[in-house]
Amino acid sequence: MKEIISSNVLVEKKFTMKKMLEIYQTASKLDGTTYLYSRQKAVEATSLSKLVSFLLTVEPNTTLKIILEGIDVEPKLTLLTKLVSNEASVLRVKRKHLIETTESFQI
């Protein structure tokens, strides 16, 4: 069954280019879709140029939401939150299950 899981993290310092590239590479390897959301802006983490532009605008002390959609996404979310842990601290994790469907949704 497909599910959506999200984690809110508090960004403590600016992301480095190395960290941005690590987030991109990790998101690209995951089976599912990864979104980052902050201040009414969302970006899919598998687009490097959009991801870098987005993360450059995230200021310290800002909440960043990591959203994963797919099957068995909890370990993948844990991996991504550990990846950003040097720049951010985890605030909250939410989980929602979706009915198996071919329809998509927009964030």
Can you tell me about this structure?
The chain is an alpha+beta fold and 107 residues long. The protein has one domain: Histidine-containing Protein, Chain: A (2-Layer Sandwich). It has 3 helices and 5 strands; from the N terminus they run E-H-E-E-H-E-H-E. It has a 5-stranded antiparallel β-sheet, covered by helices on one side. A hairpin with a 2-residue loop joins strand 2 and strand 3. The longest helix is centred in the first third of the chain and has 13 residues, at 17-29. The model has no long low-confidence stretch (mean pLDDT 81).
Can you give me a brief rundown of this structure?
The chain is 31% helix and 36% strand. The chain is α+β, with helices and mostly antiparallel strands and 107 residues long.
Helix content class: 25-40%
Total number of distinct structural domains = 1
The proportion of residues in beta strands is 35-45%
SSE order = EHEEHEHE
Query: Termini separation (Å)?
Result: 20 Å
What is the CATH topology classification name? Answer: Histidine-containing Protein, Chain: A
Rg over C-alpha atoms, rounded to the nearest angstrom? 13 Å
The CATH C-level class name: Alpha Beta
Low-confidence segments, ≥5 residues, pLDDT <50?
A: none
| Biggest sheet strand line-up | 3-2-4-1-5
| Number of DSSP E strands | 5
Outline the biggest β-sheet. 5 strands, antiparallel
Overall geometric form: globular
Going by CATH, the architecture would be: 2-Layer Sandwich
